[in-house]
From TrEMBL:
Annotated organism of origin: Nocardioides daedukensis
Domain of life of the native organism: Bacteria
Protein's name according to its UniProt entry: MftR C-terminal domain-containing protein
Length: 94
């Protein structure tokens, strides 16, 4: 999937279609969590899905560009980061 994104990056129409398909799949995962109150409600689900896609693609790109990139460790970090970012929870007072 990521290779296809990379291959079509210079073709705006294709990459837009692929990105939309990916976002749709992420929305299918977020929807049930939102219904159970597990996903934050202060931002639109579509935006959250787009941000999840951005983290995914960026993590893969860094791995492909840096020979010593620890994909396992950084993918786990990215997953924890995303989980925290999309989870319904009380935000600390600032």
């Amino acid at each position: 999937m990521t290779a296809e994104f990379e291959r079509t990056f210079s073709a705006p129409d294709l990459v837009a279609e692929h990105t939309a398909l990916f976002t749709t799949q992420v929305l299918r995962i977020l929807g049930p969590g939102a219904e159970r109150g597990e996903v934050r409600e202060d931002l639109p689900l579509r935006f959250l899905a787009e941000m999840i896609g951005a983290v995914y693609v960026s993590t893969i790109r860094y791995w492909r560009q840096q020979p010593d990139y620890d994909l396992r460790q950084n993918f786990a970090r990215a997953a924890r980061f995303v989980a925290e970012a999309i989870s319904a929870h009380e935000t600390p007072a600032r």
